[in-house]
Amino acid sequence: GSAAVAMGDDFYVRYYVGHKGKFGHEFLEFELRPDGKLRYANNSQYKHDTLIKKEMFVTKAVLAEAKRIVMTSEISKESDSTWPEGDRVGTQELEIVLGDDHITLSTTKIGSLLDVQSSKDPEGMRVFYYVVQDLKALVFSLINLHVKLRPIG
């Protein structure tokens, strides 16, 4: 059961998506560390946007939610051996440490579920696609909240 992994177990997650194109190296990356530190970086050169970097500490409840997302997805059972490799369209990486398990999954940028369904491992890539969506939604909500709570100046 999911209760087997205690809150004290090491938990770390890092996600990266990016590509090198005519606007240079554009990417989004975030990591959530066991001590609750959330680091976020977004570099979009489009229309001369700049690198956005945020760092904050999150509560145990937020860490627990990120851990729940990862555990219930069962992403640690997947392998990227048959997934399309990163290419000029882009690369995605998901690195997870959960207790003694340490996994890194890598594939190309996924445009939609159609890309997932036409792959050699639609089931595994679907798990990856959804866990990434859920983690991004969690991180974006924290970043947006953080930005709104802290007045500039």
Distance between the termini: 48 Å
Number of strands: 6
**What is the average per-residue confidence, as pLDDT, rounded to a whole number?**
88
Relative helix content: 25-40%
Radius of gyration: 16 Å
Shape: globular
- Spatial order of strands in the largest sheet: 4-3-2-1-5-6
The succession of helices and strands, N to C, reads EEEEHEEHH
User: Given the helix and strand composition, which structural class is it?
Assistant: alpha+beta
Biggest sheet: strands, sense, closure?
6 strands, antiparallel
Write the layout of secondary structure elements.
Blueprint: E1 11-21, E2 24-32, E3 37-43, E4 51-57, H1 60-73, E5 91-98, E6 101-108, H2 113-117, H3 122-149
Antiparallel strand pairs: 1-2, 1-5, 2-3, 3-4, 5-6
Overview of the molecule:
With 153 residues, the protein is an alpha+beta fold. 31% of the residues lie in helices and 33% in strands. It contains three helices and six strands; from the N terminus they run E-E-E-E-H-E-E-H-H. The chain has a six-stranded antiparallel β-sheet, covered by helices on one side. The chain is globular and about 40 Å long.
